[in-house]
Specification:
Blueprint lengths: L1 H11 L13 E3 L12 E4 L3 E4 L2 H12 L4 H15 L9 E8 L4 E7 L22 H5 L10 H12 L9 H9 L1 E2 L2 H10 L7 H7 L12 E2 L2 H13 L2 H4 L2 H12 L9 H5 L4 E2 L3 E5 L2 E5 L6 H12 L4 H4 L4 H21 L16 H8 L35 E9 L5 E10 L6 E2 L2 E2 L36 E4 L5 E6 L6 H13 L5 H6 L3 E3 L4 E4 L6 H6 L4 E4 L6 E6 L2 E6 L6 E4 L1
Parallel strand pairs: 18-19
Antiparallel strand pairs: 1-2, 2-21, 3-11, 3-22, 4-5, 4-12, 5-8, 6-7, 9-10, 10-15, 11-12, 13-14, 15-16, 16-20, 17-18, 20-21
Helix pairs in contact: 2-3, 3-5, 3-6, 6-9, 13-15, 13-16, 13-17
């Protein structure tokens, strides 16, 4: 009976690989702009889905067409992303979801971040000689694996906001895993770069490198029956199948028995995981209400701090091509990142200044430190009285080239909105594969040192049950009337904050359409150097003349977003990745 039902429901989703009616959406070419050539913009009035991969977008769109909510569509899309974009996210990882309930006009914020094993301590990533491990020494293998939070988060989201049957939402990904999916150029390229790091797990290596040497090729079709079987268990038994039954056994065995840097994860850790509903962090900018994820993500606070300082400068009058405007954005970002690095962490373990960081008088004082004509020589965190002395120089997250993160933006026919960022941390996570999916390496988002050289406590040190600090910034913006104005988020490690910040400024201050905003060169500052994407090379010299140390290079952002304007929705995907958009 179960299998017959399985086949019957599959028929509903046979549009996978099919086509869409041209009348269901209006495609608009983006305006010309400096930077990347844009993708097509989709304009609609009813439903919209934007994800990091065409297959996931298609599935989300079909769920919305069938009357599903944004929560339903997000769950179905995420199961597909775990299959076709395993380098970025999956059920072996975690994430944050920001959800707008249009009927109640209420914002829900869910923390599905991974947790450290209960017996983990501050020296988890310390060598025998007392020195911190190198990043990949720590990341590859079982030591870096935290309790995955994604499925518990999606289960809670469905419990509150789902309309479709939980089981039905797993079927598209199960079908694709069984029949096979097409390998993307991006996956092949990343596997080429990562080949030396897959020696920690034979199962993962044989899946991604079938001849044990060369990666799967773009355009080829690969199957993942083990993943389909895993999803079937979760579909029928709920998230308990993952956290309390044989899947949990397999995860723990893989982590503890891994010959390379064994981990500490236990069955009790899996069983005891809880998703947390947190208060969203919101702030005003030019009259708009901007809401994002609160701690343990640093994304919302850091972004809102920066915008709060920039309110004291007329960026609109300067325009998007002004080096001085980028100088001001960079200086405000430097000040915010100084506070981020010192104070922000899991609020259930560390007493932080929290919303005090957004106090208008504090931000005004911080803004006065910015010289419009010259970069500051040195930047430090603001002064707050907190329970613990926290090191200003904990090891910052600078691992941005190979980040394993994805973002989706979805709006359903009921007006509900999902802005969700999910991750397995580094590309391909810990490189450990269990039952068809990869396990995260999120514990490397903690500081590798518990204290500084003077013995002061580092806020983001490892502690049992603690959630590592994140930079994920799922964001929903409301206009002056309280109506949704924009949905946005990105992949990209600690650069996520700058990516999202830049697009908010571009749309609000510079009146750019969202696709043109995504196409423009990435320019951001995380505290050490002002980073300029290669396509924005013309900005480098003027910014150097203002006293900045400038680093020019590639910045592989992964934004998706929706802009609400004049009764329409305009959706956009970052041209640097495989993201697509569908709507009507």
């Amino acid at each position: 009976m179960i299998f017959r039902r399985f086949l019957q429901i599959f028929a509903v989703f046979t549009l996978i690989g099919g086509s869409f009616s041209a009348c269901a959406q209006e495609l608009l070419a983006p305006e010309s702009s400096t930077g990347f050539q844009g993708k097509q913009v989709v304009r609609g009035t009813s439903i919209m889905a934007v994800t990091a991969h065409p297959d996931a977008t298609k599935v989300a769109y079909e769920v919305l067409q069938a009357g599903g909510t944004a929560a339903d569509a997000g769950i179905a899309a995420q199961m597909v992303l775990g299959l076709v974009e395993p380098q970025s996210s999956g059920i072996g990882g975690g994430g944050f979801a920001l959800y707008y309930d249009a009927n109640k006009q209420h914002l829900i914020s869910l923390d599905g971040r991974e947790t450290a094993p209960s017996i983990a301590g501050g020296h988890l990533f310390t060598r025998d000689d007392g020195k911190p491990m190198a990043f990949y020494e720590a990341a590859n293998g079982g030591r870096s694996v935290g309790v995955p939070g994604l499925l518990r988060m999606l289960e809670k989201l469905h419990e509150w906001q789902g309309r479709a049957d939980w089981r039905d939402l797993f079927l598209p990904a199960m079908q694709m895993a069984t029949r096979g999916f097409t390998v993307s150029h991006r996956m092949e390229k990343m596997l080429e770069r990562e080949r030396k790091r897959f020696d920690v797990d034979t199962k993962a290596k044989l899946y991604f490198y079938p001849d044990a040497k060369n990666p799967v090729k773009a355009g080829s079709t690969i199957r993942n029956v083990a993943y389909a079987n895993t999803l079937q268990k979760i579909a029928l038994q709920g998230a308990d199948a993952f956290y309390k039954r044989d899947i949990a056994d397999h995860i723990v065995a893989k982590v503890q028995q891994n010959p390379t840097r064994k981990g500490l994860l236990s069955l009790e850790d899996m069983k005891n995981y809880k998703v947390i509903e947190r208060e969203s962090i919101c702030g005003a900018y030019r009259g708009y209400r901007i809401c994002s994820m609160n701690e343990p993500s640093s994304g919302g606070l850091t972004m809102l701090q920066t915008l709060g300082m920039l309110e004291h400068f007329n960026l609109a009058a300067m325009g998007r091509h002004s080096p001085r405007a980028w100088h001001l954005i960079s200086e405000a970002s430097r000040l915010s990142f100084a506070d981020r690095n010192q104070y922000m962490a899991d609020p259930d373990f560390v007493v932080t200044p929290a919303n005090t960081l957004l106090d208008p008088e504090y931000l005004k004082a911080r803004a006065r430190l910015i010289n419009p004509d010259k970069a500051m020589i040195e930047v430090s965190a603001g002064e707050f009285v907190v329970e613990q002395a926290i090191d200003k120089k904990w090891a910052p997250d600078e691992r941005t080239k190979n980040t394993g993160t994805t973002h989706m933006s979805i709006r359903d026919s009921f007006g509900n909105i999902l802005s969700m960022t999910t991750s397995i941390e580094n590309a391909f996570g810990s490189r450990l594969m269990v039952d068809g999916f990869l396990l995260n390496n999120q514990l490397t988002d903690f500081s590798f040192k518990p204290n500084d050289k003077d013995g002061r406590i580092i806020a983001n040190r490892v502690e049992g049950g603690k959630r590592p600090r994140s930079s994920m910034s799922p964001t929903i913006i409301f206009d002056l009337e309280g109506e949704p104005f924009m949905v946005i988020g990105s992949a990209g490690g600690s650069r996520i904050i700058g990516y999202v910040l830049q697009r908010i400024i571009a749309v609000i201050d510079w009146k750019m359409n969202l696709q043109d905003a995504m196409n423009m060169p990435n320019i951001l500052h995380r505290g050490k150097k002002l980073e300029v994407e290669k396509s924005g090379l013309d900005y480098a010299e003027p910014l150097k003349n203002l006293g900045h140390a400038v680093l020019v290079g590639d910045m592989n952002s992964g934004m998706t977003g929706i802009h609400f304007k004049d009764g329409f929705m305009y959706s956009a995907a970052d041209p640097r990745r495989d993201g697509t958009t569908l709507g009507e």
